[in-house]
Amino acid sequence: MAKKSWIARETKRRKLVAKYAEKRRKLKAAGDYEGLQKLPRNASPVRLNNRCALTGRSRAYMRKFGISRIVFREMALAGKIPGVKKASW
């Protein structure tokens, strides 16, 4: 489990990116790079980091499901993810 502060920091960044998305788009279209620099650093979508929705783990994140590989495996074996079953041959 990731530290609560890391998870909170990431959610705060996501809110800032959403808040400034329209303003950022307009400034980029106008070519006003000085105005872009005055925006908060965390308002840039590049600074976002994908994290597991359940544990907050940043590594081994599966984008399609929004969770880490470890949680994915546990949920798949428990039958909690529809359409996913263990391969055997």
Please count the beta strands (DSSP E, at least 2 residues each). Answer: 2
Overall pLDDT, averaged? 93
The SSE string, one letter per element, is HHEEH
Distance between the termini: 34 Å
Which stretches are low in confidence, meaning pLDDT under 50 for 5 or more residues running?
none
Strand residue percentage: under 5%
Count of alpha/pi helices: 3
- Number of domain units: 2
Tell me the overall shape. Answer: elongated
Specify the biggest β-sheet. Answer: 2 strands, antiparallel
Radius of gyration: 18 Å
User: Largest beta sheet: what is the strand line-up?
Assistant: 1-2
Structural class: mainly alpha
- The helix fraction, in percent, is 40-55%
How would you portray this structure in words?
The protein has 89 residues and is mainly α. The chain folds into two domains: 1-48, no CATH class; 50-84, Ribosomal Protein S14/S29 (30s Ribosomal Protein S14, Chain N, Irregular). The protein is 47% helix and 4% strand. The chain contains three helices and two strands; from the N terminus they run ααββα. The chain has a two-stranded antiparallel sheet with strand order 1-2. The longest helix is centred in the N-terminal third of the chain and has 27 residues, at 4-30.
